[in-house]
Specification:
Elements lengths: L2 H6 L17 H4 L6 H22 L4 H19 L6 H12 L4 H15 L8 H22 L5 H21 L1 H6 L7 H6 L7 H4 L5 H22 L8 H21 L2 H4 L7 H14 L3
Length: about 290
């Protein structure tokens, strides 16, 4: 089977599989804040992220998942050469050149999915968690900032801060369903400090010290949100409304998770309130880039 054929069938999350990005989230709701002539490019980036993550989240055997993700990396080579073979990469062809999307960040999205597919994200060391959030969250925000016209060093630093904070927050949000599917984003250092020793990822959810293990992750997310807020004025004006809305929506989510405490891991993950998100989009649309 050729690489492009494999990439054309990346696989989706099968029945009962954990899907980490399947539902509508703040990124989707904030899309109206992206200028109309750039919105298609933003959707193409989000679609690529969804395609590769669907491979990791699917029910296929681990070697098959990793093979498909390797094929996606070859497909990025084809995209760069002007020969994309999948609907997603065809949609990325014009944005790649028009908005100078960094190929390395597209590849980082694939590498993050490979960490999921390869079983790395089960009580990973702190260094691996940091690498994962950089590849999955940082890469995504850097790509979206590029779509919005800012490929500067300042935008890159902002993207790393917001991407890490955003991804840590969504990992905490999805802690329950992920653990029941055999994943656990909490770093092993935090689990050890909290005194959690469990035979399975699902058992961690019932441990009375779960809040203590989550606290350092939440604290890091909060610190990185603060970093992103300080850096936002350095980002190009046209990019700010969308990025500010995404930042604030995920900050609100982190506060919701903190209020729910240990219950956040055993209850259905909270989704952003549609009315609140719509109001935020309208507020930022009228507020503009100020």
């Amino acid at each position: 089977m050729s690489a492009t054929t494999t990439a054309a069938r990346p696989g989706t999350a099968g029945a009962g599989a954990f899907t980490s990005i399947g539902r509508l989230d703040a990124l989707d709701w904030a899309l109206p804040l992206v200028p109309r002539d750039r919105r298609g490019a933003a959707r193409a980036v989000l679609a690529f992220r969804a395609e590769v993550q669907a491979v990791a989240d699917g029910a296929a055997p681990r070697p098959e998942k990793r093979g498909r993700l390797a094929a996606w990396r070859l497909e990025l080579d084809a995209l760069e050469a002007g020969l994309p073979a999948t609907p997603v990469t065809i949609a990325l062809q014009q944005p790649l050149h028009r908005h100078r999307l960094p190929r390395t960040e597209l590849e980082n999205l694939v590498l993050a999915a490979d960490m999921d597919a390869g079983g790395v994200m089960v009580a990973p060391p702190q260094c691996d968690l940091r690498l994962y959030t950089r590849r999955s969250g940082g890469a995504l925000i850097i790509l979206l900032a590029a779509v919005l016209g800012d490929t500067s060093h300042a935008a890159g630093c902002f993207g790393l801060a917001l991407g890490e904070a955003m991804r840590l927050t969504t990992l905490l949000r999805d802690l329950g369903p992920a653990a029941r599917a055999g994943r656990l984003c909490l770093p092993r250092e935090s689990l050890a400090e909290a005194g959690i020793v469990a035979a399975s990822t699902a058992e961690v959810l019932d441990h009375p010290a779960l809040d203590a293990a989550c606290a350092p992750v939440a604290a890091t997310a909060s610190e990185r949100f603060a970093d992103a807020r300080l850096m936002l004025p350095e980002v190009a004006l046209p990019a700010r409304p969308f990025l500010r809305a995404v930042l604030e929506a995920h900050e609100d989510l982190l506060e919701t998770l903190h209020a729910r405490g240990r219950g956040a891991a055993v209850q259905p993950p909270p989704s952003p309130g549609r009315v609140a998100l719509a109001a935020r989009v309208l507020r930022h649309r009228f507020r503009g880039a100020a």
